[in-house]
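Hi all, long-time lurker, first post. I run a small reading group and we've been trying to get comfortable going from sequence to structure in the token notation. Rather than ask abstract questions, I figured I'd post a concrete chain and ask someone more experienced to write out its structure so we can walk through it together at our next meeting. Sequence below, copied exactly:
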Amino acid sequence: MSEQRRPVRGHGCCRACQGWSWKRGRRMLAMWAAAPMVAALVVGCGRARGASPPLPAGSGRAPVSSTTTLSSPQTIYLTMDILGSFKLGPDGKYHDAFSPSSLQVPAGDHVVLTIYNWDSMPHTFTVPRLNINVTTVSRVKKGDPGVTVVKFSLPHGLGTYSFLCTIPCDSDNHDWSMGKLGYMNGTLTAVPV
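-- Answer (accepted) --
Happy to help. Here is the structure in token form:
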């Protein structure tokens, strides 16, 4: 009596498993697992952001404005450095500076700005039009910055807001960087969503 051998998947012993491999099996499993997510994405993308659903004919109601947003404001996380005697000026000297000195945020969003102050003295992050005036913590020791977190919300309208340091700094250079854009002055721009 001969013993019957059962084919083992992946060994090429029968037509069903020829060409089958563990690698292909994992790919197929991943594809089937991803199929419901792809379908949900396709169905969810059927309507543009801000668009309102069609109203039945004769409903007597005006359609919702296309400027209405369906999503709530998002929280944006940003970082900024304050660096003492960092940026070379046109006078050939190094000056204190915000880095970056220009930030862009979607209008209406909430902002969590983490400021790393690498300078040995405190500075401020002041945005007069938004009533923000926060004094940053100076560095603890060389290579260990002071960290200050500022939370605020931008208005829904577009616009550019100036920010600056109000504490006299860059004293080695007679406070030169205080009034210069790109040094201790910068811009925060609310851009379209």
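A couple of things your group might point at:
The chain has one helix and nine strands.
The domain at 75-191 is CATH 2.60.40.420 (Immunoglobulin-like).
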